[in-house]
From TrEMBL, chain A:
It comes from Ladona fulva. Belongs to the dynein intermediate chain family. WD repeats lie at residues 267-303. InterPro entries: Dynein_IC, WD40/YVTN_repeat-like_dom_sf, WD40_repeat_dom_sf, WD40_rpt. One of its GO terms (cellular component) is microtubule. One of its GO terms (molecular function) is dynein light chain binding. It is found in: Cytoplasm, Cytoskeleton, Cilium axoneme. Keywords: Cell projection, Cilium, Cytoplasm, Cytoskeleton, Dynein, Microtubule, Motor protein, Repeat, WD repeat. This is Dynein intermediate chain 2, axonemal. One of its GO terms (biological process) is outer dynein arm assembly.
Automatic annotation (TrEMBL), chain B:
Its main location: cytoplasm. The keyword Transmembrane helix does not apply. This is Dynein light chain roadblock. SMART domains: Robl_LC7. It comes from Ladona fulva. GO terms for molecular function: dynein intermediate chain binding. It comes from the Eukaryota. Belongs to the GAMAD family.
Length: 413, 97
């Protein structure tokens, strides 16, 4: 909207002197008011328009919107000022059926709330502060002490020959809220229980336990070599895959019994114990990969264990040490199959994160993080924030973010 | 029937902590009140507007829903509003004595 008005005036007319003279008044034009025009207009009552030409001196301004500051609602015929009329109107309303019905209904809820208020004062100060007896009790009153309770103990019963119980190296729950726990028992210490005095290597079994029955395992798996790790197929509650101490991987089916359905051929397997296996969320649901302390990661298909689908040698290229701790994300699409390995050799202070989609070894090893002084014992990705992962090693636990390569973001002392 | 209403209102008023009770009709006229006139008129006007606004909020968020009760807690007391189609019952209670 243009707010300037342009007019032209002849230069000769500027500065003309005013000559004042006295004349009689006469009416040039008389426009009488025409009441009939009122019909076209609706009087605006009340109209609020400020008419003060002075500056606003007020500190605050409050505009009440939509409120007519008189007592309203009264029907037209009742004069507000007359008490009698208003009383009469009120009495009339009180006699109304609708009124009675409504009040009875509404007062029911109201009484409930009133009594509720009287019963419990919900805004009362119940806890006087975050740290009341912090000195005496050592903890704040708000924090509940965490505790745990042993529900069941699943014991390995074959402690017979050497009297030694084999440590449970790995656990896996059966999928779909399963009630079965697969335990891989094996001692990973080098040559600790290699050959017994008789010359026959001891048979170390792994077990599948039913949660409800800790007395006897549901199934005993008898591998030719102790299993270092054992994993249920997340899609199939009967299939398991394992990596054993002699480097082979095996495929088991709980319906078939205690012997593996298939084992990988010795010449294409790992040279060190296959310390970790993990399923890949592939379309056929048959693929998994295994990693080992010999520095290789192999991808397998369960139907054909004679040869791995792919092999990756985890050589960072900087140091000659090959066995490293890995934490792998299958299909790089965050389907959450993480695998981790244990690598005890000294030069490895590096955590390597692999991307399966890469075709060349350089593409596969996406990034390296200087993690711990010493072996990284365990790794896990955060299931909700997939870019963060937690590593444990050298008596500390550290949380990392994938994008930040320099150091961990949080760590314990 | 009318006496029942009287009884109910008396009973509500006699609960512990209740400061006042007001019944307002849909036009904002206070029909019954236990407070003085100025206060009553103020409450009637302000609360009926607020209750309308609250109802429109509830219905805007979900058209199948409706406002059943409104409680306004303030430092000094609590105003409880039970709206209905034709009337509004307002009770002011002071729970901490």
């Amino acid at each position: 909207m243009e707010i300037n008005y342009i007019y032209t005036k002849k230069r000769s007319e500027f500065g003309k002197q005013c000559f004042f003279a006295d004349t009689t008044h006469f009416i040039y034009q008389d426009i009488p008011s025409n009441p009939s025009l009122n019909v076209n207009y609706i009087p605006q009552n009340p109209a609020d328009r400020g008419a003060q030409c002075a500056d606003v001196q007020a500190e605050h301004e409050y505009e009440s919107r939509g409120m007519n500051h008189t007592e309203g609602g009264w029907p037209k015929d009742i004069n507000l000022a007359e008490v009698e009329q208003t009383m009469r109107y009120r009495k009339k309303v009180e006699k109304d059926d609708m009124y009675i019905h409504t009040i009875l209904q509404v007062s029911h809820t109201m009484e409930h709330c009133i009594l509720q208020n009287n019963a419990v004062e919900i805004y009362e100060e119940y806890f006087s502060g975050p740290k009341t007896s912090a000195v005496e009790s050592g903890t704040s009153t708000f924090v509940e002490k965490s505790s745990s309770r042993t529900v069941n103990v699943f014991r390995d019963h074959s402690v017979s020959h050497s009297g030694r119980a084999y440590p449970a190296a790995h656990l896996s729950w059966s999928p779909n809220g399963g009630s079965r726990l697969a335990v891989a028992q094996c001692s990973l210490e080098f040559q600790k229980n290699g050959i017994s005095r008789v010359g026959v290597p001891p048979i170390v079994n792994s077990y599948i336990w039913e949660i409800e029955n800790p007395n006897k395992p549901e199934l005993v798996l008898t591998p030719p070599s102790p299993l270092a790790c054992l994993e249920y197929n997340p899609k199939d509650p009967h299939c398991l895959v394992s990596g054993s101490r002699n480097g082979r991987v095996a495929f088991w089916d709980t319906r078939r019994g205690s012997l593996p359905v298939d084992q990988s051929a010795l010449e294409v397997s790992h040279r060190d114990p296959a310390s970790c296996v993990n399923w890949i969320a592939s379309k056929s649901g048959n693929e998994f990969f295994s990693a080992s302390t010999d520095g290789q990661v192999k991808w397998w298909d369960t139907r054909r264990l004679s040869e791995p689908l792919e092999t990756l040698i985890l050589d960072p290229g900087v140091k000659s040490a090959t066995g490293v701790v890995t934490e792998q994300q299958c299909l790089s699409r965050a389907l959450g199959a993480s695998s981790l390995e244990y690598e005890p050799t000294i030069p490895t202070r590096i955590v390597i994160n692999c991307n399966r989609k890469g075709k060349t070894p350089t593409e596969k090893l996406v990034s390296q993080y200087q993690a711990h002084i010493g072996p990284v014992y365990s790794l896990q990705r955060n299931p909700s924030f997939l870019k963060n992962f937690l590593t444990v090693g050298d008596w500390t636990a550290r949380i990392w973010s994938e994008d930040i390569r320099e150091s961990a973001i949080i760590w314990t002392g | 029937m009318a006496s029942e209403v009287e009884e109910t209102m008396k009973r509500i008023q006699s609960h512990k902590g209740v400061v006042g009770t007001i019944v307002v009709n849909a036009e904002g006229i206070p029909i019954k009140s236990t407070l003085d006139n100025t206060t009553t008129v103020q409450y009637a006007a302000l609360i009926s507007q607020l209750s309308d606004k609250a109802r429109s909020v509830v219905r805007d968020l979900d058209p199948t829903n409706d406002l059943t009760f409104l409680r306004i807690r303030s430092k000094k007391h609590e105003i409880m509003v039970a709206p209905d189609k034709e009337f509004i019952l307002i009770v002011i209670q002071n729970p901490t004595e």
